[in-house]
Amino acid sequence: MRIAECQELLRAEGLDGWLLYDFRGSNPLARRVLGLPVDRFLSRRWFYFIPAHGAPRQLVHRIESGALEGLPGEKTVYLRYGELEAGIVGLVQGCSRIAMEYSPRNANPYISRVDAGTVEVVRSAGVEVVSSGDLVQWFESRWDEEQWALHLEAAVVTESAFNKAFDYMARIVHSGGEVRETEVQRVILDHFALNGVVCDHPPIVAVNSHAGDPHYSPIPGADGVIRRGDFVLVDLWARRDHPRGVYSDLTRVAFLGEVVPEPYRSMFDLVARARDAAISRVRSAFASNEVLRGWQVDDAARGVIEAAGFGEAFCHRTGHSIGRETHGNGANMDNLETREERKVLTRTCFSVEPGVYFPDFGLRSEVNVFVDANGEVHVTGGAPQTEVAALLPYRGI
Length: 397
Description:
Distance between the termini: 48 Å
Largest sheet: 6 strands, mixed
């Protein structure tokens, strides 16, 4: 934990401190920010307070007094529940506003990790509790140069995986055969293994109506069959098999035929325009040094689709944070499921993936956006898709 850097951020935000708390792994964000093992079992509550000025302070239980060993700061040990409450109040004594992993009205469940009762104890000391969302993402979601390089390496593999998947489908269908969704899934996973990347769960391969379900997952034996004239969505994600690897997460769509019919063409054009509007919103904000929040990026994409009369068909947020997990702990591009008030920070990566979904098909276009330390906006994973790929006649790769 970079204490001096954290204190500088606290002062810039007008906060008196940051109270980090965990009970039996209930707050993995606090553990990761402090560099503590997420999987280490601790049976008692611990608190770590970083003030805007001065030395940090610890509050730990007697039978786990070494829970925060290695972290700086004076240690207070409690045993009885009365001592615990007094210790919490003592940590924040003299403070007016502090941050915790809390979200007012649970508006952002990704950051809301502290139970209401603990917040009540802190408030009993006359302290206002605000969300630590931007503090968490500063330490958890910003990439260094090594991670940026690892992302670019993963993006080369994820982009090339589409060529493998589309070629496999086109070759078999062109010769009069048919392909199951899970077969294409296996082609992608084999490509990942051959090229040194891993994923937390298998990619999405969805034909026709299955593509109308944004989180469809093929099941062996009950998966769809891909034939000539079918529409297919492929969503895949992977990271370098490296301790610090971060994800690349992309989606593309294709048609098993020579000429892409309506409404696939017009709906993809709409989604691509929404995608590009979101990217433009990010670029313009950083070019003008505007403070940009996740909800504003979502509005830029959603506004395009709503203006065309298909707002109800766009049933998920515009994008999510990307990190060591496919869905990271930074700001999401969301003003639908949550109102994402966290800032879009430099050195963070997120997806932009607007989509529209109907009973017989659905489509989206997903790219990854990284804002570097200088505010330059990079779109990774190759050039964004500009039209539905027509896979026939088969030409090979």
